Amino acid sequence: MHDGASGETVAQDVGEAVSEIRRDLAAAYQLIALEGMDDGIYTHISARLPDGPGGEKRFLLNPFGLRFDEVTAANLVTIDETGAVIDDPYGAGVNAAGFTIHSAVHMARHDAACVLHTHTVAGVAISSIKEGLLPLNQWSAQFYDRIAFHDYEGIALNLEERERIVADLGTKQVMLLRNHGTLLLGRSVAEAVKLAINLERSCKAQVAALGMGLTPVVLPHDVAEHTASQYQKAYDSFEIGGKPDPEWAAELRRLDACAPGYRG
Ligand SMILES: [Zn+2]
């Protein structure tokens, strides 16, 4: 039974959840820019919003043409699963074509609160070698045996390739798009950003280690798998266990100190 008070409480809870997602997604754009992981106005980070009153799917995306460091909680655009605009405070629309991969992943993977795609030099480099990411250090061990691959077919805009991307992704959270970049799924925006930053560091470290021309020490299977499960447990404690995430809080403080406008 719903009385007026409980209805208002539900609306208030949804409103707070939406505000938090907007803040976190704006922070994600800013942090990816701060880490030098953006690529002009290309690539996207999308976040799923609670369903609309009629059960309609809704997502947030950056306004078309803005740099990542210009994205704020207030100018994010609300769209449906086709990329059609529902709410656009900034008025520049979205890159609907760029949302096509995100949309396919969001519709197939309801566990993904956030889909984050990057083109970074290190990520593209590792995506371009047959061996992919090796378990060479603690950062990369967390991804051991947890990375999906999708072969390059050209700029991914057509429906058939979207289906192959979703099939190649399977149940994984991390995918190397061969000769192209990376794709991360987070059960929260925070998780997607943390995975992206850790993957970037892993890729940079591999490029550096292999670039020395000396003999790399590749972690043995058991150690790499053990380390990956330790990381998984820590990620689960925030996403499933409800533990407050001090790392994300620290990242928000980093932005509050250097780019406080993201909240506006
Ligand atoms: Zn791309």
TrEMBL record:
Family annotation (InterPro entries): Aldolase-II_Adducin_sf (IPR051017), Aldolase_II/adducin_N (IPR001303), Aldolase_II/adducin_N_sf (IPR036409)
Residue intervals of the Class II aldolase/adducin N-terminal domain: 23-207
SUPFAM superfamilies in alphabetical order: AraD/HMP-PK domain-like
Superkingdom per UniProt: Bacteria
GO MF, one annotated term: actin filament binding
Pfam families: Aldolase_II (PF00596)
GO-annotated cellular components: cytoskeleton
Family under the similarity heading: Belongs to the aldolase class II family.
Record-given protein name: Class II aldolase/adducin family protein
